[in-house]
Design a protein that fits this description.
alpha/beta; about 325 residues
């Protein structure tokens, strides 16, 4: 069986999940990997057949998605060309992790495309929703990468085709300790802003992983280092807590490691607002920004925050088996 596994490359969440999914898929068929997007930082341990520009989003520096830069870099003509030239007919099964080029190529050619993503779960009727609905954001989520069937991952299993997160083996194998520092991943904030705000909490050691700097340096009690997969996982495993954006993988891994978690969802990113609503319903504290008016909540989290208990079994193989029983060959 010839399989195309297509991954959204904006950010690191989809890429990190693929590190566990691709090796399992390779045992089930002949797999080609497609990655589209320009914002990922991870080096994948397998070959990429198609590296495409796609249609992604650009992180800003003040807490949100930079909509103007996202528009300027969208290159719609190139995106359409990638859709039309992708040889989608050579594949027996297309599995899609919120990746738009292969999804639209399948749609145009009337070919089944199976969604296996977090995005397949966040809009489910049983999933928690924020108080304010972003209708444009909801429209984008529903139509960005159209699929014919969906299997979703979320912080809780809300329905029969929604499963708990894929926790990478690298994370599952970590020795969990507490060396007192706090791990930070807020890619929508620049280093200058993070240093200014976090250094206000003088008794705390902050270990910041930055998308905006390629050098390692320290200012007062704030350490800055570029994104490095192994270093980031180790930092989380040894931390007292994790301060992150409202993505999916990092909060899920922090919860799995039994770390207390504080989340700041990106502005102009409806998926992160949905994630924040789900985490808040579970008892995870959520704030809207790093502005000084939220200092009291941050300090309370530092002083009194507690981990939220979760149960995330290693069920990735079972999810793929279910997908293959319904849409592929039994192997």
């Amino acid at each position: 069986m010839k399989i195309l596994y297509a991954i959204q490359g904006t950010g690191n969440g989809h890429l990190s999940r693929s590190m566990d999914i691709v090796p399992l898929l390779k045992k089930m068929g002949d797999v080609d990997v497609l990655v589209s997007g320009t914002q990922g930082d991870l080096n994948l341990p397998f070959a990429i057949k198609y590296k495409l520009h796609g249609f992604g989003f650009v992180f800003g520096k003040a807490g949100g998605v930079d909509l103007w830069k996202s528009f300027l870099r969208s290159r719609l003509r190139k995106f359409i060309k990638e859709i039309n030239t992708l040889p989608i007919d050579k594949y027996d099964l297309v599995i899609n992790d919120f990746e738009p080029v292969s999804a639209w190529a399948c749609y145009i050619n009337n070919k089944p495309c199976i969604g296996l993503s977090h995005q397949a779960a966040v809009l489910h009727e049983n999933a928690p929703k924020p108080e304010d609905t972003d209708m444009i954001g909801r429209l984008i989520l529903k139509n960005y990468a159209p699929v014919t069937a969906q299997y979703g991952f979320h912080f809780k299993a809300f329905d029969k085709n929604i499963f708990t997160p894929v926790i990478r083996q690298q994370v599952r194998e970590q020795e969990i300790t507490n060396k007192g520092h706090y791990t930070v991943y807020l890619p929508a904030y620049d280093d200058k802003r993070l240093i200014k705000r976090l250094s206000e909490f003088k008794d705390v050691e902050w270990d910041v992983f930055s998308k905006h700097n390629k050098k390692v340096f320290k200012h007062k009690n704030v350490s800055i280092q570029p994104i490095d997969n192994k270093a980031f996982i180790k930092s989380m495993a040894q931390s007292a807590g994790v301060l992150s954006g409202g993505g999916f993988e990092t909060p899920a891994e922090a919860l799995f490691m039994k770390k207390k978690l504080l989340v700041i969802p990106m502005k102009n990113q409806y998926e992160q607002q949905l994630n924040a609503a789900a985490l808040k319903a579970m008892g995870v504290p959520v704030i809207k920004s790093l502005k000084p008016k939220h200092d009291e909540k941050i300090q309370d989290w530092l002083n009194n925050g507690q981990p939220v208990k979760v149960n995330y079994p290693d069920n990735t193989q079972q999810v793929l088996d279910l997908l293959f029983r319904e849409f592929g060959e039994t192997v």
